[in-house]
Design brief:
Number of strands: 15
Shape: elongated
Helix content: 40-55%
Order of helices and strands: HEEEEEEEEEEEEEEEHHHHHH
Number of domains: 2
Largest sheet: 12 strands, parallel
Length: about 375
């Protein structure tokens, strides 16, 4: 853990580290309390870091939770999950984290990115903040640029204020902006009558939600992507089943080629009855407390059989394709892929395609049930090899 923190700390080193006039100090620990002052630049890293002594140069910190409770006479760079700056910073501030809280004055610029940024100090330079929830409660001297969802302003601002929000902008009572307030938002900001804006207000209505036509395009793209992933997954599974268990696929194909039409019809009726009657049986079993466990077990078996029946319906088409065009009875993995692709294309045909898929699925379900039964209870004279 300490090695990882040290590597992260190295990335925070500015280019002027080697040129610092005073010696720099380095500290890495799981829980770090920096209670001694640093005459030069200071670099700290830890899961929990608390700075209680002044830093004469720049301060760079990385960690989970960082609290600076002593003045920093140079710049301050912090990368952490939670950041709390409780003392004055003479130089610039650059914060990157989750929750950021700046309580004291900053002599330079403020750059902060996080989930929530609250600045109750007053920056002498410019302010640039990007966060979901942003609030400035003590104004700023330099220009202010804010990006976020909800933005709150209060205090005296000596320059222009630019806000781009996807939610709402709120100004507190008696807020003063000597420059121009320019903001983009879905709805007008809440500006009280006591607020003073010398440079005027420039509002741009900007809705970040897609319009009707864009929503339809996104919906079509999402549906297309979902269908593509579903078909691709079915192709891969069918290829795996056909390649790993070719005997089972060949046995299902043999039942269609060697049996009489009456036997094929009975196989389809068996599969149809199983797919239709099992949900009714599950409902009846669920009505009793004792039958809930049995219903849950049967449900998993039913889902497995239905899923395999759909896959082997495509594999059966692949075996028909191989027998008809490749002139071979053996089953290969790419036959399953071709068959599932054909089944997917057939299902796109309105009404007729769905009916054909239903017939193939019921046949493969009935054939699977018969083969599993013969495998579990083989006859003495013949034990078919399916796997």
């Amino acid at each position: 853990m300490q090695r990882a923190l040290l590597i992260a700390l190295i990335f925070l080193l500015p280019a002027s580290t080697l040129a610092a006039s005073a010696p720099a100090s380095f500290s890495v620990a799981r829980s770090l309390l920096a209670a001694s002052s640093s005459p030069g630049n200071a670099y700290r890293a830890g899961i929990s870091v608390v700075i209680t002594a002044p830093v004469a140069g720049d301060l760079s910190v990385t960690g989970g939770s960082v609290v600076t409770a002593a003045p920093v006479h140079g710049d301050e760079l912090v990368l952490a999950g939670s950041i709390s700056s409780r003392a004055r910073v003479t130089g610039d501030v650059r914060f990157f984290g989750g929750r950021i809280n700046i309580e004291e004055q900053v002599g330079g610029d403020i750059i902060a990115f996080g989930f929530s940024v609250h600045d109750s100090g007053r920056a002498d330079g410019s302010v640039f903040i990007g966060a979901i929830d942003t609030s400035l409660t003590n104004g700023a001297i330099g220009p202010v640029t804010l990006y976020g969802n909800t933005v709150s302003l209060a205090g005296d601002f000596a320059s222009d204020v630019t806000v781009i929000t996807s939610g709402h902008l709120t100004l507190a009572a008696s807020t003063t902006i000597l420059g121009t307030l320019s903001y983009e938002a879905p709805e007008p900001a809440t500006i009280p009558a006591s607020a003073t804006i010398i440079g005027g207000v420039k509002y741009t209505n900007a809705s970040y939600l897609p319009d009707a036509s864009t929503s339809r395009i996104l919906a079509l793209v999402s549906i297309g992507f979902f269908l593509f992933v579903r078909v691709l997954g079915a192709l891969i599974l069918a290829g795996l089943l056909a390649g790993l268990f070719p005997k089972l696929a060949e046995a299902i194909a043999e039942r269609a080629y060697t049996k009489q039409p009456r036997a094929i019809l009975l196989t389809m009726l068996l599969g149809f009855a199983t797919l239709v009657a099992t949900p009714i049986l599950l409902i009846l079993l669920s009505l009793t407390f004792v039958g809930i466990g049995l219903a849950l077990l049967i449900f998993f078996l039913y889902a497995l059989v239905a899923f395999l029946a759909l896959l082997y319906a495509g594999i059966f088409l692949g075996s028909v394709f191989a027998r008809r065009f490749a002139r071979r009875d053996t089953m290969l993995w790419h036959d399953g892929v071709i068959g599932m692709l054909l089944l997917s294309l057939i299902s796109l045909v309105p009404f007729i395609g769905l009916f054909a898929v239903l017939l193939l699925t019921t046949f493969s379900a009935g054939a699977l049930l018969q083969l599993f039964f013969n495998f579990a209870f083989p006859r003495e004279e013949q034990t078919p090899e399916m796997l």
